[in-house]
Amino acid sequence: MDLGYARVSTTHQDLERQLVALDEHGIPDERIYADKKTGATIDRPEFKKMLTYARDGDTIVATDLDRLGRNLRECLNVIHNLSERGIGVKTLRDPLPIDTTDTSGMAELSVAMLALFAHMERVFMRERAAHAREVAAAQGKQPGRPRKLSPAQLAAARAALREDQPVGQVAEAFGVSRATLYRYLAQNTEQI
């Protein structure tokens, strides 16, 4: 029996493309497991549920090998552990298609190469992010996302709160959520 697995790294990303591909492969919705969590860890709720459910003779189908995890060691360990349980892994859209139910040497080589490429991409992504942070710091910019509230806006929000304006009203006035306002207020509580 085929079990589908889909994953995106953040809650802001969309699973639709992967879910459509798994559906087109003929996997019914009740046998598709999907997580919105980074692939750097195998501590993903739906992934764990799928691994618990999978039985000897089943095949786990994903669009790409990096959906199972981007870390080379973890990816290969997952495939190895599944193989020892008699569970195959198949990918639908990798440049080198993976099908561990194929016992040829090329199938094993494809798994190793794609896992290596996924790992390399993760390393390069971290290096690019570190470089971007260094460049921003060298230019006197704060790395990361732009701040939602400037220091002047934060001071005005604090003043409004001291005047007993409701938090929701203050947050709305500055175009941020209550949670964002609370987070900014907590950063320098001595100034409240």
Q: What's the Cα radius of gyration?
A: 23 Å
Count of strand segments: 4
Secondary structure class reads: alpha/beta
Question: Can you tell me the CATH class of the largest domain?
Answer: Alpha Beta
CATH topology of the largest domain: Rossmann fold
Mean pLDDT: 84
Helix and strand element order: EHEHEHEHHHH
Shape: elongated
Provide the low-confidence segments as ranges.
none
The order of strands across the largest sheet is: 2-1-3-4
Count of DSSP helices?
Answer: 7
Q: Spell out the CATH superfamily of the largest domain.
A: Resolvase, N-terminal catalytic domain
SS strand fraction: 5-15%
Biggest sheet statistics: 4 strands, parallel
CATH architecture designation of the largest domain: 3-Layer(aba) Sandwich
The termini sit apart by: 60 Å
Offer a quick outline of the entry:
This protein has 192 residues and is α/β, with parallel strands linked by helices. It has helices spanning 16-24, 45-53, 72-84, 105-138, 151-162, 167-173, 178-187; strands at residues 2-8, 32-36, 59-62, 88-91.
